[in-house]
Amino acid sequence: MKKGLILEGGAMRGLFTAGVIDVMMENNIDVDGIVGVSAGACFGCNYKSRQIGRTIRYSVKYAKEPLYCSYRSLIATGNLFNKGFCYYKIPFKLDKVDKKTFEESPMEFWIVATDVKTGKAVYKKAEKINKETMEWIRASSSMPVVSNVVEINGHGYLDGGISDSIPLKFFESLGYDKNIVITTQPEDYRKPPISKEKVMKVALKKIPAIFEAMKHRHEMYNAQVDYIMRKEAQGEILVIRPKNTLPIDRISHDPDEMTLVYNIGREVATEMMPQIRKFYSEKKEA
């Protein structure tokens, strides 16, 4: 039996996930592997490094810092979330990832990104905290139009949510058979088609595969939600989700708003803790 944890993205909605996983760590819930998409990768790495509270701490502290996330950064660097500050200065200097704990942990940590040439998902297993891992996390979190393409080993990547928003099937393909899925949208949410399609097509003309993937993303996402709900109804997975639409936009500079969403995640996880313990302790039927 392999216990997996699947973390959807959603930019600042990911603070809900941060609250959930902090409560899981506080309750000593161990998993064999995590796969994170976008914010799920950014914040999920703290599970492998066992750093309770790190996500909300630096998010609140640097919420109003222009180098953290701003149009000033976008104009100057091509990235809304500043590459140097978010992916290097914070994790390596200001609020360090616990490199030793991360690398000694037997827990697998997977990152999802989208190949800009094919529009298909690429999955990277991260075993160390180094520049390459940070580039994969940055790629997974790099939203088209407001981010530059991230070049890694001669290939270009962008946001993993474009191609595989909730990678449950990927983890199942690796043999993970006791999976908890954390989403950042309520149960009744369904993604609408891309807005301003003609504008987006022009904006993404140099990476047409990304445009095509985004054009059909709602179909992929909604099919994944339907699959998850079927598996949930059959008792094969456990889903942790907000009860209502989270009171935060994809981008936020409001520490109180961030803390509220984080605490919603904590409340849901605390309420579901008996279910979480029971689900991971039960043996899967043959």
From TrEMBL:
An MF annotation (GO) of this entry: hydrolase activity
Top-rank taxon, per record: Bacteria
Stored SUPFAM superfamilies: FabD/lysophospholipase-like (SSF52151)
Keyword Lipid metabolism tagged: yes
Domain (PNPLA): residue spans on this chain: 5-172
GO BP annotations listed: lipid catabolic process
InterPro entries recorded: Acyl_Trfase/lysoPLipase, DUF6363, NTE, PNPLA_dom, YjjU-like
Transmembrane segments: none
Motif GXSXG, residue range(s) on this chain: 36-40
Keywords, sorted A to Z: Hydrolase, Lipid degradation, Lipid metabolism
Motif placement: DGA/G: 159-161
Record's protein name: Predicted phospholipase, patatin/cPLA2 family
Taxonomic source organism: Eubacterium uniforme
Lineage: Bacteria, Bacillati, Bacillota, Clostridia, Eubacteriales
